[in-house]
Write a structure and sequence with these properties.
4-stranded mixed beta sheet; Rossmann fold; alpha/beta; globular; binds guanosine-5'-monophosphate
């Protein structure tokens, strides 16, 4: 059975914990490929070029955009972020499920371009919890934190444009729910219609 891998788009405001949920999902469950994005922002301590992101200059990033090398891209808090097209398409063609962890503007571009994408939005359990997590993260200065809080509210206003909502009350619950979505999406007629045809062809 030759079927294309899923394209799962995961968004959620900064501080909702989607990075942790995703990391846990990738550790616990096999067969998912997390796309490595390109960005013009500076690496944070511990981030590795080619693993966390491809850290690019602005000129190089925009050159890739001009050459049609990005599946989507967006400017977020004064930096560009984008999904390199080739690796995503190659993995999906091999039947491997691909996850994009991207912000809302880019996610909406994917929704337009790839109608079969599975759109998932991670919500914090409350505003108070989101604020707490943003401050606790402590990797940015106060001004950046408050800018990210405003951005988080703006992003959550788009949550209903997605297909699924995962509430990150505990990482464990969120991982199970996210995995449940992936499993269900692998069983849709869109995914398995070809299998039905193959079986019927044996008649
Ligand atoms: P951070 O700077 O905290 O790593 O990421 C900031 C935001 O950029 C997050 O919401 C993250 O999901 C988003 N992001 C990361 N990679 C991409 C990408 O390739 N495209 C888009 N549109 N957003 C991305």
């Amino acid at each position: 059975m030759n079927k294309k891998g899923l394209l799962v788009v995961l968004s959620g405001p900064s501080g909702c914990g989607k990075g942790t949920v995703l990391k846990e999902l990738l550790t616990k469950k096999e067969g998912l490929f997390l796309s490595v994005s390109a960005t013009t922002r500076r690496p944070r301590p511990g981030e590795i070029d080619g693993q966390s992101y491809y850290f690019l200059s602005r000129d190089r990033f925009l050159e890739l955009v001009d050459n049609g090398g990005m599946l989507e891209y967006a400017c977020y808090c004064d930096n560009y972020y984008g999904t390199p097209k080739d690796s995503v398409e190659a993995k999906r063609a091999q039947g491997i499920d691909v996850i994009l962890e991207i912000e809302v503007q880019g996610a909406m571009q994917i929704k337009q371009k790839c109608p079969d994408a599975v759109m998932v939005f991670v919500m914090p359990p409350s505003m108070a919890e989101l604020a707490r997590r943003l401050v606790d993260r402590n990797t940015e200065d106060e001004e950046t934190v408050s800018r990210r809080m405003a951005k988080a509210v703006e992003e959550m206003r788009h949550a209903k444009e997605y297909d699924y909502i995962v509430v990150n009350d505990t990482v464990e619950n969120a991982v199970e729910n996210l995995w449940g979505i992936v499993l269900a999406e692998k069983l849709t007629v869109r995914q398995l219609g070809g299998f039905v045809d193959e079986v019927l062809a044996q008649v």
